UniProtKB/TrEMBL annotation:
This is dTDP-4-dehydrorhamnose reductase. It comes from Flavobacterium limicola. It is an enzyme of class 1 (oxidoreductase). Keywords: NADP, Oxidoreductase. It catalyses: dTDP-beta-L-rhamnose + NADP(+) = dTDP-4-dehydro-beta-L-rhamnose + NADPH + H(+). Gene3D superfamilies: NAD(P)-binding Rossmann-like Domain, UDP-galactose 4-epimerase, domain 1.
Length: 286
């Protein structure tokens, strides 16, 4: 029985993979928390991987506190770059299949068309820079790895934008949301399924892929969709990013082109509102 190790197991994507794992009983699953796979302790990381001895690694662990990363650069770089290098080298040395998750924040946001895997990267914040460094380490050390860039991830698990907005829409009479950052959300359950579609595919085709749900929207439009599905009556106002300053800059445009993953793996990409509806239905039932 092949063994799958999931890093970042308590995060949104890791939690969705755990829920999905019931459908893949042909594998032995290990959902590794920070004590089992210490991405912030490079001295023990390789030894931990050797102890777990996986056949497949789904690297969902990351430092994702975008604003905090501006002042915790060393820690962000350790987790998002240096640890990825160790995992990639281990996977290469032991013929382990590796899927590593990256982000749309490797781009600077100046594009006006959906970004392909070959688009020029130019991160504008520390988080994006460390994630790009991790991509480069993975590509350099392990040509057999698969990297999936994704964007605006949410889930029924953990803390995320959808859950926060649902709460605010119920509690407040009016809220303001940025309307000049364009991209597409990703329901983590959909991404988890895509990862398993790749794992179980007849052919392993290494390289960089993009995945998010379909749709080109702003955060403001995303909230309007949450409001519509949830039946909330709160007034939602769109505001420019300049009216909501944050320690880390965000790319103004980071819509990902999903053409490659559709073509290579035959992935069916749901519309963002369909996935959002499914997620919110699950949240209501909990």
């Amino acid at each position: 029985m092949q063994k799958i190790v999931v890093t970042g197991a308590t995060g949104q994507l890791g939690s969705e993979l755990k829920a999905l794992s019931e459908n893949y009983a042909q594998y032995e699953w290990i959902f590794a928390d920070r004590t089992q796979v210490s991405l912030d302790n490079l001295d023990v990381l390789k030894k931990q991987l050797e102890v777990l001895s996986p056949n497949i690694i789904l690297n969902c662990g990351a430092y994702t506190a975008v604003d905090k990363a501006e002042t915790e650069q060393e820690l962000a770089n350790m987790i998002n770059d240096l640890a990825v290098g160790i995992i990639a080298q281990y996977a290469k040395d032991h013929s382990v299949k590796l899927i590593h998750i990256s982000t749309d924040y490797v781009f600077d946001g100046t594009s006006s068309v959906a970004l392909t895997e070959e688009a020029i990267t130019k991160p504008i914040n520390v988080y994006g820079a460390t994630k790009r460094a991790g991509e480069l380490a993975c590509l350099k050390l392990n040509s057999d790895a698969i990297i999936i860039r994704t964007s605006w991830v949410y889930s029924r698990f953990g803390n995320n934008f959808v859950k926060t907005m649902q709460l605010l829409l119920q509690e407040r009479d009016t809220i303001s949301v940025v309307n000049d950052q364009i991209g597409s959300p990703t329901y983590a359950a959909d991404l988890a399924q895509v990862m398993m579609d790749i794992v179980t595919a007849q052919e392993w085709i290494a390289g960089m892929y993009h995945y998010s749900n379909e749709g080109e929207i702003s955060w403001y439009e995303f909230v309007l969709a949450i409001q519509e599905i949830g039946g909330f009556t709160c007034e939602v106002n769109g505001i420019p990013s300049s009216a909501y300053p944050t320690p880390a800059k965000r790319p103004a445009f980071s819509l990902l082109d999903k053409g490659k993953i559709k073509e290579v793996y035959g992935v069916d990409v749901p519309e963002y509102k369909d996935s959002l509806t499914r997620c919110m239905k699950l949240l209501r039932s909990e």
